[in-house]
Structure formats: C-alpha cells, structure tokens
Amino acid sequence: MPIRLTIRQLEYFVAAGECGSIAAASQKLNVSSPSISSAITQLELELGLPLFVRQRAQGLKMTEAGKTLAVQALNVLNQATELTRMAGAVSNTVQGPLRLGCLVSFAQIVVSSLRRSFEANYPDVRMSQVELTQNQIFAALRRAEIDLALSYDLNLPPDLEFHLVNELPPFALLSPEHPLAGHDSLTVYDLAVYPMVLLDLPISSDYFLSFFTRAGLSPIISERTRDMAVMRSLVANGFGYSIANFLPLNDLAPDGRPLKFVPITGDVQPIAMGVLSVPGSTSSGTHAAFVDHCRAQLT
Fold first, then answer.
1. 232-246 confidence digits (pLDDT tens)
2. Domain boundaries, the chain
3. Which of 54, 92, 213, 278 has the most CB atoms at less than 10 Å from its CB?
4. What angle do CA 253, 255, 258 make, to 5 degrees?
C-alpha cells in the first residue's frame, strides 16, 4: 500500500522539530496545538516510525528517523513553494496569498499603507506580514516561511535576490533645543562630540557606526534601543541625537514632542531599500506586481 503524506503534515512536522515543542509550533504557524499533534501522529502511523521522543520537561526531541525525514521534508516544502510560484508565472495572474517579511523600521512607517493600497489594486491577493531582523529575514526566505521581504541591502547573502526600490540618505534626528538643530546639514565631525542615541538593530547599527569609523571617530553612545519609537522619544526629550534613513510621517515623537531632521553630508553612503526574494521568485505575477507597486509608492 503506498504511503500517503500531505504537505500540511510535513509543514507541521518541520515546524515542531524546529521549535522543539507543539506549543511553540502552534504559535509560530497560528494553528491549534491539537491540529499539529494530530498531524504528526498521523505521519508516524503512516510511516510506521516514531519521529519524536516526547519529553514532558524538555519538549520534543527528534529521533534519527525524524532527522532524516526532516531534511527530505524541507526539500519537498521548498519544491511545493516553487511549483506554486511557477503556476502563478504561467497564469500571470495577481492573486492568492502573499507573505511579507519586513524590518521593524518599515513595519512602523510604510508597510500598513503599502499593504492596503496593494490589496486595493489587487483584491484577489491576501497579504500577511511579520516583523523580523535582517538575519531572520534571510532564514525565513530560505525556509519558504515568507515570500518576499522589505529590507536593506546590508550583508546580503549571494543566494538571495535584491530588487532595488529606492536609495535613502542618512539624516540626524535632534530635539529643537539641541545645539545643532538650526543647521541645514551636518557632518559626523559635528555630531561626534555630542551624546548619541543608537538605534541598535542588528546590521543597521554597524552601518550607522561605520560613518564615524571611516572618519577615525568614536561616537559618544549614551543610549541604545531597538525600537524606533523609543529612539525618537529619547531624542525628543534631549537624551542625544540619533541617525536614521527613513523619515517618519511627521516631525513628532510618540509622546508628542517635536523633532528636527537634518541631512548628514560628507563620506556617508545612502542605504538601498528594496524587496528581497529567493532567485526566480519575481517570475510570479503576484510577486512582480508587488515589487512594481513598492517602486511606485516608495520612490
């Protein structure tokens, strides 16, 4: 009798193995724990092999058979995703689900309006989003957990494709009372003598700090935060200046205090914003349409 497996069973099995527990896989996939548990049990019965050792205190541990199956299951899931992309390319239609990953900085400012306008133009598309760090975006694309990602061209691996949308020059955020707030432009030499509030996100922080390193300077980092809203509030309340590339929609911090934005000139490189994908992804009509929509809306 042939073995009957489903893509859903393999997806739940791989997620449980990566997360180490049914509960964590349930949260990751937004699927009930009993559904995941039942799928794994059915998979084990179909194969006639135990895939996990259930440990009350330590969650799930893969058996050797489970580890072998997990490698093949990932291949099958990736191939299934590619088949879906090919089908979309053949039909050249803009429809179906579109899972978007995005850096936190984009999620706060542009993603909601970008989704709304894209879905208004293409009502047969159902978008979802997840906020990730740069390295998490790379991993999620490779595991086919997301289809596309809004990101920067920082530390990009060679196995992913970057589709340029816009180039964003850096600027300094200052409170109106800051001694440099009245300047039309600033250099890192102007900024280096004042306290800095560093937006301490992975990879992005290295980019900001490289401005000073190239000039042989060391910034005075007085505060660090991974949250853009917190960063703006700290700046507006006089804890220091900060640097960013994406202008907020208004000149107010979350607590209502005003901010000033001053361009940074000199040996500072703009950062490229774009859509990141696995190779060949934008042959899909839906994916290509989203890249074009980003260029129309964000340029």
1. 999 999 999 999 988
2. 7-86, 92-167+272-298, 170-269
3. 278
4. 40
What is the average pLDDT value for the chain, to the nearest integer?
A: 88
| 7-86 under CATH 1.10.10.10, yes or no | yes
Same fold, 7-86 and 170-269: no
CA–CA separation, 240 vs 221, rounded Å? 9
pLDDT tens digits for range 192-238: 999 999 999 877 899 999 999 999 999 999 999 988 889 999 999 99
CATH code reported for the domain at 170-269: 3.40.190.10
Total-model pTM: 0.64
**Nearest CA-CA partner of 250 in 73, 85, 108:** 108
> How far is residue 79's CA from residue 26's CA, in Å, rounded to a whole number?
23
Q: Does domain 92-167+272-298 have CATH number 2.130.10.10?
A: no
DSSP 250: S
